[in-house]
Task: inverse folding
């Protein structure tokens, strides 16, 4: 078997499709629960077969030579979920269970599921039980998109399930060379167009707040040229104020996650959130710049530009998904061995083991954010 077929479940706006397409794999279909993001995914990939909502039909092909890759909702284990609706018993986890049930029912060769790092321990017992009952070997990967050439600090977790007996060796072999691309290397002097008008308007209101707080145009210009980091913290330091006082004086949002940050060209962005507001080269990041920061093609299009940040915050970093698809496929084809290139890390996993590819801030060697 060539294992060239990929079935995408919960790919949303297309991050998994970007990944599979970059490897020239055959995408059987892209399937969603509630059509989330499909307007954007279909805009960029108009020729794919799409299933917009439940119930999911029979895929029409045997999946025994197919890799299923999925990104079900992460809310069951998200640190931002403060409700009681958490964990494997929550309604948020039902989609993950559905992904696995559907994949096993149709005999998928392998299933790759991305989630937040909280799912590593939060769903560990559940996955162990499921894999044992359904005759799949299980492997786990903890990683950060920043080591894949994506200029964004984005730690995430993958569960890999491979049908027992398919691997040529008694273990899974993963090779990884850390590649770092700073914002300056990725964006250069910047890409001016197209802009996101919603972010621009929000920035214009923030500029009004800076002026109302007493800053001159020259002071604003110098701050944007010389400073990096969280705007409220910068202003508090420059004007000997508390963070609360700086926010009040310069009309800055009381919610830290909404506050503009001045990106450091020599470093990386924080994790993209739906409320991320960033300044690069003296003005808000543009649509292609945010695409690049998230690991997408610069010219990736959005059916509704207002949705860009939300879709990118919920998606997978495509270079990471492409790497893992390729690694699993090579293992299934028996084309993996223990040899390695200089600076390449090799992870040898027996079923049930984890490859921890995460990195600490001080290992990167540059000023990350501020």
Result:
């Amino acid at each position: 078997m060539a294992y060239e077929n990929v079935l995408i479940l919960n790919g949303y706006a297309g991050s998994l499709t970007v990944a599979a397409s970059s490897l020239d794999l055959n995408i059987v279909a892209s399937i969603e629960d509630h059509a989330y993001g499909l307007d954007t995914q279909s805009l960029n990939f108009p020729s794919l077969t799409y299933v917009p909502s439940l119930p999911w039909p029979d895929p029409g092909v045997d999946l025994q030579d197919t890799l299923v890759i999925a990104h079900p909702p992460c809310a069951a284990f998200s640190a931002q979920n403060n409700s009681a609706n958490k964990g494997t018993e929550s309604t948020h986890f039902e989609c993950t269970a559905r992904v696995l049930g559907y994949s096993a029912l149709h005999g998928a060769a392998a299933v790759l599921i991305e989630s937040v790092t909280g799912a590593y321990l939060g769903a560990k017992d559940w996955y162990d039980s499921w894999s044992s009952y359904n005759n799949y070997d299980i492997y786990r990967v903890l990683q950060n998109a920043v080591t894949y050439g994506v200029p964004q600090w984005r730690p995430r977790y993958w569960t890999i399930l491979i049908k027992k007996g398919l691997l040529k060796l008694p273990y899974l072999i993963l090779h990884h060379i850390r590649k770092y691309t700073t914002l300056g290397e990725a964006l250069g002097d910047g890409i001016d167009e197209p802009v996101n008008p919603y972010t621009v308007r929000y920035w214009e209101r923030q500029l009004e707040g800076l002026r109302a707080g007493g800053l001159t145009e020259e002071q604003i210009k110098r701050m944007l040229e010389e400073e990096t980091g969280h705007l409220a913290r910068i202003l508090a330091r420059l004007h000997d104020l508390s963070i609360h006082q700086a926010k009040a004086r310069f009309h800055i949002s009381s919610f830290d996650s909404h506050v503009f940050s001045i990106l450091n060209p020599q470093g990386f962005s924080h994790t993209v959130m739906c409320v991320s507001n960033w300044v690069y080269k003296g003005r808000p990041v543009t649509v292609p710049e945010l695409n690049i920061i998230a690991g997408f093609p610069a010219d990736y299009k959005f059916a509704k530009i207002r949705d860009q940040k939300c879709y990118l915050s919920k998606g997978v970093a495509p270079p990471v998904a492409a790497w893992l698809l390729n690694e699993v496929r090579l293992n299934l084809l028996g084309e993996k061995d223990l040899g390695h290139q200089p600076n390449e890390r090799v992870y040898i996993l027996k079923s049930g083991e984890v490859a921890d590819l995460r990195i600490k801030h001080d290992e990167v060697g540059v000023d990350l954010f501020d």
Summary: The mean pLDDT is 94.
